[in-house]
Amino acid sequence: MISAAEIHVAEQHDERVLRRANLYQNPEAFQKRLDRARTLRDASKKSRKKKPAPFKWLTLSQKQQLVLSWWTPESPVCDRDAIICDGSVRAGKTVCMSFSYVDWAMSCFHDMNFGLAGKTIGALRRNVITPLKRILRGRGYKVVDRRADNQLVVTKNRRTNTFYIFGGKDESSQDLIQGITLAGMFFDEVALMPESFVNQATARCSVTGAKFWFNCNPAGPYHWFKVSWLDKLREKNALHLHFTMHDNLSLDKATIQRYENLYKGSPVFYKRYILGLWVVAEGVVYDMFDDEIHKIADGALPNRFERYHIGVDAGQTNATVYLLIGELRGKLYVIREYYHESKAVSKKDSDDEEAPSKGKAPSEYAADFLAFTVGLNISNILIDPAGKWLRTELEKKGVRRIINADNDVLPGISSVQVWLTEKLLFVAESCKNLLREFGSYIWDVKAAERGEDKPVKKFDHALDALRYVVYTLFGKKRASVHGRVVGKSVASSIKL
Ligand SMILES: Nc1ncnc2c1ncn2[C@@H]1O[C@H](COP(=O)(O)OP(=O)(O)OP(=O)(O)O)[C@@H](O)[C@H]1O
Ligand SMILES: [Mg+2]
Predict the structure, then answer these.
(1) Which of 426, 408, 396 is nearest to 484 (CA)?
(2) What gap in Å lies between CA 133 and CA 434, rounded to an integer?
(3) Residues 6+ apart with CB under 8 A from 159
(4) What is the pLDDT of residues 248-295, one digit of tens each?
(5) Distance, CA 247 to ligand 2 centroid (Å)?
């Protein structure tokens, strides 16, 4: 006996057949239908993304060749448990290490979990995963990127392994890594990760034959990675390779020269990022600031600017600073400053004629802001992310275009240094607080002994306001893995 449901299905089928038959008898309707189908097909073809071209390897340097082969059975160092590649920027460490890591994992294991870590997941994806996928696909690997799960599933020759993606500074990664068993871990820019994360991750590598892969640019000599790994190579059974830009044969002479120029204004960063040395950050932070070059008479400022920006450092117990910064043809000019100490300071601590001064109410600071910017069309106001009280007050007064600044101190400092070195940042003579801070802002020697890079948190309010604008608006366009500024000359990269 035929059921009611079966009769319904049969009737629907007949109806469809009939509709189709009618269509064939009506050539106009048929043509219309065909055209629509073609349009839809073309649109879907266009919207389909073009496959990225496979990665083009250029001649590998000897060190890169060693990175690619150190783990193979023929290698005299195949029994090492770890490889560490440190050294200068753009030296070709990441590109060959990340590929070698996956190649090793796929040659030695099947159905295992591995870890790939960067400072953050975003940085890792941008700097490592994107080129890595192109390299792997060019080498016949099948790569499925499960973005939602932060996993890459890699297959070749009927072997499949899963690579979990972690961010050393991402909280979500801290939880995820706790419960996992890994056969290897790759750390890109390990010196930018907390030691606790690296210890967690290495402790998860309990599979026999597991290896650790590290790369980084140097930091200070007391940095935890230098002390715990580089200074204990024998104990860790680790292979150490020191890279410079000359180990990346894809860079031409002019490019190497450009990078050298970029850092030549700062002895510390030159030693670290060009020579690849673990040296302490000491002395004046902005030692490349030169009155002769960077300080200009107010009368010598350009008459007009393409855009104006304001940097705001908000202090309830410290100074509140507004800096008016004009942008013109790829250069930045600090035109004038507002600087108010919120607490009484003695003449001894400040040669500001207005000191000592009393604190002001938030509404007074907001009123001062309006007076400071009166008549100007301000494109962006970059405010200290901790200055919510002032932001709220400014918004109450109708001030718009306020952006929370990126307060990542080291990359921010490096960004300002590059602008100074490239002679693209100038300060009007009347900004006396900012000018004074340039001379007194120093690296913290005590912090350096603990392996940390940080400036002494004193006399830094105007410099913070400057850093907010320079780094958040301009530096980050060119930020690399670590947020350090690298790349083309600043002038050519500014989008006006
Ligand atoms: N053998 C090569 N063939 C083609 N391109 C290469 C080769 N070696 C390096 N490169 C390219 O050089 C650039 C720098 O390489 P990579 O990112 O690996 O350097 P790095 O040492 O990790 O730099 P950083 O310290 O700044 O992160 C990249 O664009 C990379 O693709
Ligand atoms: Mg790198």
Answers:
(1) 408
(2) 46
(3) 106, 109, 110, 111
(4) 999 999 999 999 988 888 888 899 999 999 999 999 999 999 999 999
(5) 13
Sheet of 319-328, strand order = 295-296, 425-428, 331-341, 319-328, 307-313, 378-383, 402-404
Q: Does 3.30.420.280 match the CATH number of domain 291-493?
A: yes
Which atom in ligand 1 lies closest to the alpha carbon of residue 127? 17
Mean per-residue pLDDT, 424-433? 97
* Superfamily of structural domain 62-252: P-loop containing nucleotide triphosphate hydrolases (3.40.50.300)
> Does ligand 1 come within 6 angstroms of the Cβ of 91?
yes
Ligand with smallest separation from the Cα of 250 = 1
89 C-alpha to ligand 2 centroid (Å): 7
Q: What is the pLDDT of residue 45?
A: 67
Q: Tell me the CA–centroid distance for residue 189 and ligand 2, in Å.
A: 7
pLDDT tens digits for range 210-219: 999 999 999 9
217 lines ligand 1 (CB under 6 A): yes
C-alpha distances out from residue 308 to 192, 294, 379, 472, Å: 34, 19, 6, 14
- Point out the ligand 1 atom lying closest to the alpha carbon of residue 58: 3
Expressed in angstroms and rounded, the spacing between residue 266 Cα and the centre of ligand 2 is: 21
Instruction: Report how far ligand 1's centroid is from the alpha carbon of 480 (Å).
Output: 12
Any atom of ligand 1 within 6 Å of the Cβ of 89: yes
pLDDT band for position 132 (cuts 50, 70, 90): very high
Report yes or no: 483 and 341 within 8 Å, Cβ to Cβ. Answer: no
Spatial separation of the C-alpha atoms in residues 365 and 392, rounded to whole Å: 11
Q: What is the pLDDT of residues 274-287, one digit of tens each?
A: 999 999 999 999 99
pLDDT digits (tens, 9 = 90+) for 72-121: 999 999 999 999 999 999 999 999 999 999 999 999 999 999 999 999 99
The residue contributing the CA closest to ligand 1 atom 8 is 92
| Higher-scoring residue by pLDDT: 18, 229 | 229
- Residue 312 CA to residue 331 CA, distance in Å, equals 20
Q: Whose Cα sits closest to atom 22 in ligand 1?
A: 94
How confident is the model at residue 359, as a pLDDT? 75
Show the tokens assigned to 93: 């460490």
List CB-based neighbours of ion ligand 2 within 5 Å. 94
Q: H or E element: which one contains 113?
A: strand 113-118
Q: Which atom of ligand 1 is nearest to the CA of 57?
A: 3
So where are the chain's domains?
A: 62-252, 291-493
Whether pLDDT at 324 is above 70: yes
Determine the number of helices (DSSP H) and then strands (DSSP E) in the chain: 20, 15
Q: What is the average pLDDT score of the chain?
A: 88
Is ligand 1 within 6 A of the CB of residue 119? no
Distance 99 CA to ligand 2 centre (A): 12
